[in-house]
Amino acid sequence: MVASGLQRTLHRARATVASPSRRTRSAVVLGRLLGLAFVVCFLSGMYSHFLQQPLPWMVFPTKPVWLYQVSQGVHVTAGIACFPLLLGKLHAVFPELFQSPPVRSPLHLLERASIALFVAASLVEITIGLLNTYQLYAWFPFSFRRLHFVLSFVIIGSLALHIAVKLPIIARYWRRDGSDPAEPRPSDPVGPDAPGTAVRPGGVTGRLSHWVDREPQPLEGASDDRSAALGRRGFFATIAVATGALILFTAGQSFSILRPLAFFAPRLPGTGPQGLPVNHTAASAGVVEAASADDWSLEVRYGERSATFSRAELEALPQVEETIPLACVEGWSQSARWRGVRMRDLLTHVDAPADATIRVRSLQQRSQYTVMIMPSEFVLDDATLVALELDGQVLDLDHGYPARIICSSRPGVLQTKWLSSIEVIA
Ligand SMILES: Nc1nc2c(c(=O)[nH]1)N[C@H]1C(S)=C(S)[C@@H](COP(=O)(O)O)O[C@H]1N2
Ligand SMILES: [Mo]
């Protein structure tokens, strides 16, 4: 009794929420875009994560100089585009919430649970990612990066399972065929194992395709007349416009070509001291005194050997100039002309080996910026500088005066400001 009452309720709910935009084809089209965006975010996210926390065997490319800038720009832009795509997808599959019976088999339960996990993890992931671009670390005291990293595996894992389970439906609705038939088309394979075969009540094959096949039927309930087609088109147009507008109005923070349109970008390039944005000022980092002290010096150490350099002594060394973008994990980036001492050259003053790994310290105490490790591929690179000047002027105090690290294709968080020491550790 209770069971059949529940089934009736579920049926009614499902009929109530049926609409032309809620069709399997819509779900597949949006799923493709969303799947692509998730994979792009996952790969670029892994790149960013391991640059900051490399495994011992990892070696990273140092060129082109814009590699990280583009990768992280794509990461954040694709992540933002996921909002309308994911909401659209959830809209399209909403009736699936009211399947009856709610659970048909242990496998079906597993599949529904994995989708619930997938949706929840995705919503949390893109939300904390968006908050991060606005520097709102609301999930404190958790580490944003760790949570974002762990959730990405939950998402990719459940996405792979989801795609595997839905493969017959995805294959069937991959192409637009105009008819989206409720009945199998004449060209469809028939028989108990054919994809898309209609409901087979009571049939227990134990195969994934069995309970998956039954799914499209109710979604195709809406009549395929002109107004339904219009409704569908309106639905897709809305998502397309929302996605396009979001990309157009935020991507300018990462891609200079869209700069004039960056209305939604949290940080506007071209602002800040010397025309470069600043998240953490010298005052907020508590380094104003130490960084402007006349007796500041940079200590360079290799085992027993050490050398100290005042700002004037650094200026007296051979200077090189490099145009390198500063690319924050938050998505904003900006290229600038940096001038200073090449790291490789500086290390020769303590006879360090060419392929040294170094530990860099900042005057800033007790923060994630206090210590930064730089692997040898970056130490070796021509474009890695102890920078003293920015766009032809002495580095602003907020940009790391007296000296900061500038390095090609590494996240902004590793571009340490207000240097105090450099130590060869391997
Ligand atoms: N010592 C120190 N170095 C630092 C930072 C900082 O807060 N303190 N910020 C880092 C970050 S997150 C980025 S993106 C770049 C540029 O940050 P800024 O906007 O704070 O200058 O510098 C990096 N170097
Ligand atoms: Mo950053």
Automatic annotation (TrEMBL):
Keywords, ordered alphabetically: Membrane, Transmembrane, Transmembrane helix
SUPFAM superfamilies tied to this protein: Oxidoreductase molybdopterin-binding domain (SSF56524)
InterPro entries linked: OxRdtase_Mopterin-bd_dom, OxRdtase_Mopterin-bd_sf
Domain of life: Bacteria
Entry-linked Pfam families: Oxidored_molyb (PF00174)
Region described as Disordered: spans on this chain: 180-201
Keyword Chaperone: no
UniProt keyword annotation of Lyase present: no
TM segment ranges: 29-50, 70-94, 115-137, 149-169, 235-258
Domain annotation Oxidoreductase molybdopterin-binding: ranges: 288-425
Name recorded for this polypeptide: Molybdopterin-dependent oxidoreductase-like protein
The organism of origin for this protein: Plantibacter flavus
